Request: fold
Amino acid sequence: MTLRLTNTAKTYPDGTRALLPTELYVDQGEIVSLLGPSGCGKTTLLRIIAGLETPDAGSEIWFGSDNVTSLPVERRKVGMVFQFFALFPNMSVRGNIGYGLKMQKLPKSEIDARVTEVLDMCQLQEFSGRAVDALSGGQRQRVALARAIAPRPRLLLLDEPLSALDAALREELRDELAVLLREFDITAIFVTHDQDEAMAIADRVAVMSNGQVVQSGTPEDLYRNPKSAFVAGFVGNAMRFDGTCEGTKLKLAGGTLTLPGDGSGQDVFVRAEDVQIEADGPLTGRVETVTFLGTHYRIGISGITTDVLASTYVGQNAPRAGETVTAEIKPEMLMLLPKGAAGE
Amino acid sequence: MSKRNFVLACLTPLLVFSVAFLALPLVRLFLASGEGDAGWAVYLDILRKPRYINTLVLTVLVSLATTFAALVVSTTAGMFLLRNQFRGRGILLSVLTLPLAFPGVVIGFLIILLGGRQGLVNQLTPGHVVFAYSVVGLFLGYLYFSIPRVLLTVMAAAEKLDPALEEAARTMGASPFRVVMDVIIPGLMPALIASGAIAFATAMGAFGTAFTLATDIDVIPMVIYTEFTLSANIAIAAALSIVLGLVTWVLLLIARTFSGTTVAAGG
Amino acid sequence: MFRSKTKVLQLAVTLLACAFLLVPTILSVMAGLTVNYFKGISSGLTLKWVYQVWELYSESIFLSIWLALACLIVTLIIGLPAAYGLARHPGWLSRMLEEFISLPLAVPGLALALALLQLYGTLKGFRASWTFILVGHVLYTLPFMVRSILAVLAAMDLKTLEEGAATLGASPWQRFRDIVVPNAMPGILAGALTVVTLSLGEFNLTWMLHTPYLKTLPVGLADSYASMRLEIASAYTLIFFIIIVPLLMAMQWASARAQRIAK
Reply:
């Protein structure tokens, strides 16, 4: 099923505009992530799609060729995975997964067969008779997913599905979720504030800020071609230089950089992995911090721009704090974005 | 039916019931209090006529005595049961809390068995000691009623006291007495105020106990009862009920703001 | 173990309090079972008084049981949806409503009974029927039912659980039936036991509302205290204890359980 939102907005009674008029299109089988900091409106948007929030007048939500704008949530046939899972404590794992099928008034034998099938898919067979409070966090997450998927919804919605788990488990389940969602072959939207999660799972990421979608594209596209300072900063932690542009030159406190194009009226950004500590580099600064991160070091250098500039260092002989180093940045790795771009 | 309408529909039976059988009757009671010969001056009469003033004073005094005694007894017993593990502790706790739902009339009868003409004390002592139908009997009845309530409130609060505070005071050289004064009592203060208010309010309004014991003692509930049934003086009965209700309600409101809960009142 | 003086003193107060509460109860049980209480146990044990009470008052006892069950049903019908409504709509209006229906906990039963009599006393058919007493009992026990359920509901994330059920296709009524009621069960159980226990022992309202033809158990008790010999009054009290004490223990167990769940 395809999903299309036109002019969809949400204003709370107190006047707070949680979501500015938004257009969104999701193709059949596409997995889209809504990515943004807390309070950006991503969960509101998801809940409007689910039918858990009523959008402002004039909003339109289309599921394929059905206008579902005024359809109550229980008749929209969506599956939803909640942040803290919302498993029913009064039902077993099987009872939870079968609940949506029971609501569709399917015969008992068919419910049993479908639940067993989903239990297999999510590798939950051995837990089927357990009470939900006897499950670990990861198991609960899978039950929540199985419960949402069992009634074969038209659309699967996931609200921060991994954030209730601890960090180690989160990474493991992230990859598992990406595989499962593709196995289900279902149109899915999931909300997250974690860029790694968004990129690992989604076909397409819609970055949101202050109640609107500021940029939408494949993870690679967003990473390489951010259209605003906000996206550059939020996706891949780009750092902004504080300097003055003269044509294709950027004058900084610690040296001069060559830009890939005319920099007037533009802000210049770079990512840590593109800042290379090299002998004879054009930039000179002082090492403030050296953080060992296993596969690489993260070096904080002061004196190049106003803020400390981070650089990724791979190798054995990392510089020490207090040393003076020189660094180089290839012009094609610098990102030029309009000054004061929207979304800040 | 939308979610909002469903939730409103859920509240409708409660609204209908409480308007029909609580709000309207209370309004009627209030109006009735002004329909006597004295009009609305009936409320002034309560404060002017010696019979009512004496009743008010006596009721307040007995209630105060009950509150004080219940606080002392229940706090001591409650802290003791909480801080000591010994065989039979559970039984003592049950004995102290089970009378929670004994109606006031039954408690009145139990006091008669203690201090009535055929009571235990009169049988055991050489003289003629009958106290059940005096203010002492009434006080004991109210105390019987209040001990379980105060005990439960105080114990619930004491369970939440951090034992590390006591230990800290001890390491700084405080004697057990000073620990009680400086750590335990201040920590329990909200619960003591709350349960004190509960004990006071229930004693003020207790009808069942007074009905069995206070045939010759003028406490407010008995005066309301006799004014209503014997003298058919509905206005004064209604006015006294309103005043009594307001006082107990305010007291229990205070209790709730201090402790967050109230143990069953009534009696 | 009880070495220090303070401990001994505390123990003494505790034991004294226990004796104060327990001794008269034992006296009443004994008095109800002895042939002649004034002469003491030596006069022999008997069930004669209990039989007499049964002959005199069995109707009151059955009326009370009937009232308690009717009261339970009414408080459930009104209280369960109301607790749900209050839990789903927390706000100052709900707080006010909860505070208002809790008035009968604070205002003495005598005053409430007077109020009911003032407004409905002239409706003879209603005034003379058992439903009039039932109204009083519901008025007094309803806040216990509502609060008991509300405490359990307020402790769980009811809104999200319901949203979960809604996305799976459950209508408001189905959500109430499948999610709200089963999860509120500990609160319902505690509330139900409280309602039955309190209704069986309710005297203050009932004494004012009853008619000579409709005497409940506690009204009968007061009657026997005033006009019967001590042995009969005691035997009647004994019967009351036999009914009420197991209920009380069950109620305390259920309330403690509900409170644990609410935390």
